[in-house]
Design a protein that fits this description.
Length: 271
């Protein structure tokens, strides 16, 4: 019998996942090195999901990895740090954007290590619901500079400020995103109707077929339905892999829709 270390077993499992998906990841693993002590991580050190990145780290699915959990569970902290570690602006945008309105992100991203795959991303973007306005403002500023060129062309040719919040999200995903890209999304459903979440889901699938990789923090049962994605729950125990049916947002939504009147009656009943 061949005895393998835990790391060797994880490498074998990762290879099986990649072969099953038929794609080579742009980023294989996110890891927090032992040298990054808690004193360097700021408030992120108290997040169990962050501490779960120590040791072997977190293996990303070569196509789509979802992070789910309650508010305050650390999923947005993680996706922001992954974006920063990938060279993306913490306030959103691509690796070419460097605007900063208020430094509020944890220093975690400065210490994470990304284990890259055999390919390099051709493009990238960090899309977060709370800062699309900032990205739109920066694009308009750059567009007004002499010799700026067609700055807005990759975003649909118009200022994102001329669109609704949801329309600006879809304009970025539909026009700016391209194949062989590494994309980090933080709760994109916050700006989108249910129908437009399905539109985004279809766009994600198109981009995955073109060699792109996604890491997404979400509460959306619609987005979580992407076939074959890896769903990771963030909670007080760290990180754990979940089946679609076991994701809290999915279970709660199903319970509500099965009997909304009874559900609401119980919720609003006097104690």
């Amino acid at each position: 019998m061949v005895h393998r270390s835990a790391r060797e077993r994880r490498e074998i499992l990762r290879g099986i996942r990649e072969r099953a998906s038929g794609s080579e990841p742009l980023v294989r693993t996110v890891r927090l090195p032992d040298g990054a002590g808690d004193d360097l991580l700021g408030y992120a050190a108290a997040v169990p999901a962050v501490q779960a990145l120590r040791g072997d780290g977190l293996d990303l699915h070569p196509e789509v990895t979802f992070l789910v959990g309650e508010n305050g569970s650390g999923k947005s902290t993680l996706v922001e740090a992954i974006a920063v570690a990938a060279g993306l602006n913490p306030e959103g945008g691509s690796s070419q954007m460097r605007m900063s309105t208020r430094v509020s992100h944890a220093p975690l991203g400065d210490h994470l290590q990304l284990v890259r795959g055999g390919r390099r991303p051709r493009t990238d973007f960090f899309l977060r619901a709370e800062s699309v306005f900032t990205v739109a403002t920066e694009l308009d500023r750059i567009a007004e500079e002499p010799y700026a060129g067609d700055v807005l062309g990759p975003y649909g040719g118009v200022s994102l400020h001329e669109l609704s919040h949801g329309e600006s999200f879809l304009a970025i995903a539909g026009n700016r995103f391209g194949g062989d890209g590494f994309y980090v999304l933080d709760e994109p459903e916050a700006a989108l109707s249910a129908q437009n979440q399905l539109t985004l889901l279809r766009r994600i699938h198109q981009l995955v077929r073109e060699g792109s990789q996604f890491v997404i923090a979400t509460h959306s049962p619609l987005l979580l339905a992407y076939p074959g994605a890896r769903i990771l729950g963030c909670d007080e125990d760290g990180l754990r892999e979940l089946a679609y049916d076991d994701a809290p947002a999915v279970a709660l939504t199903r319970s509500f829709l099965a009997a909304p009147e009874r559900f609401v009656d119980r919720l609003l009943a006097d104690d």
